[in-house]
Backbone:
């Protein structure tokens, strides 16, 4: 993750829990009030909170998003254990400054828990659609929504570029001119791809646009959610096989959680250092070790029977990457 992305995500993490007072977890104490003995909250996402987290995740730069892979469920469970450990230790963690920032706060852990629940929903397949399933939209409605988002963004991006004369800025202005000039709406997929590329290649552009007053934040959300569906339909119309649009929501929110994960692990390892009873309390995620299938009992020729007095040749070999801890 780039430095700017880490800074933006960390800032969002510390404020997200108090942004919406209608969320199920309402904070009525100071951020560092650990409330010793308080139970870890149950993070039940409302549609409004789920939509907000999705918007935050959509702003994560593409180069910071890595697929969770085949061990996504295991990573979510590990992160849940890490959260429970940090919550129990919050009284002590709240007194440990981290870098140039503040110590871990209760608000920060609540925001982390909400995002973790969002990731769990995506990984488990329980996620509810945001504002309806894009696949159910008629072609005309889908095109109108995307075209409106394209024009809104193309009108606003030149404000961000004001005063810049570099080649990248000139290319971005040309993209905006092309989008606005597409009166016949013949390049919906091309315009969407170019705007997505602008957002992904300029990490500060999305957050900057989201502060504008003419619906730019909603336009980014529409672009991110509906563009893959439009491309899929074009592929079907062209007679090419097209898989259903992939949901990278879990990957994006996992990247969004990275700064807080790093803070928890850093402070937690400092806290338990030298304490034998807490050794390993803040370990990074380790991929499960694949088990080899056990051989059936030997046949008449004695095949499959191992000599109990001789160690297996593989017993002395290192386990390799399968057991190598992965720190997030």
Residues:
């Amino acid at each position: 993750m780039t430095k700017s992305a880490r800074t933006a995500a960390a800032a969002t993490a510390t404020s997200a829990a108090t942004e919406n007072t209608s969320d199920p977890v309402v904070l009525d104490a100071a951020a560092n009030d650990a409330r010793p003995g308080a139970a870890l909250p149950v993070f039940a996402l409302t549609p409004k909170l789920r939509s907000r987290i999705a918007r935050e995740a959509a702003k994560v730069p593409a180069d910071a998003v890595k697929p969770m892979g085949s061990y996504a469920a295991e990573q979510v469970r590990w992160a849940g254990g890490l959260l429970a450990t940090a919550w129990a230790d919050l009284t002590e963690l709240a007194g440990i400054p981290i870098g140039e920032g503040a110590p871990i706060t209760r608000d920060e852990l609540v925001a982390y828990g909400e995002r973790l629940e969002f990731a769990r929903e995506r990984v488990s397949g329980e996620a509810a659609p945001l504002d309806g399933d894009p696949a159910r939209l008629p072609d005309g409605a889908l095109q109108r929504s995307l075209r409106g988002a394209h024009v809104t963004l193309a009108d606003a991006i030149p404000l961000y570029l004001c005063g810049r004369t570099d080649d990248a800025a000139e290319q971005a202005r040309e993209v905006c001119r092309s989008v606005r000039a597409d009166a016949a709406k013949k390049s919906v997929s091309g315009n969407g791809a170019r705007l997505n590329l602008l957002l992904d290649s300029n990490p500060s552009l999305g957050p900057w646009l989201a502060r504008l007053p003419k619906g730019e934040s909603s336009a980014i959300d529409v672009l991110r959610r509906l563009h893959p569906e439009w491309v899929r339909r074009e592929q079907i119309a062209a007679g090419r096989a097209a898989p259903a649009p992939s949901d990278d929501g879990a990957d994006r929110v996992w990247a969004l959680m990275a700064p807080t994960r790093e803070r928890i692990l850093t402070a937690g390892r400092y806290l338990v250092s030298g304490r034998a009873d807490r050794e390993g309390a803040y370990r990074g995620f380790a991929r499960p070790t694949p088990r080899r299938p056990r051989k059936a009992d030997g046949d008449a020729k004695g095949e499959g029977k191992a000599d109990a007095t001789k160690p297996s040749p593989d017993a002395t070999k290192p386990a390799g990457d399968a057991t190598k801890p992965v720190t997030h």
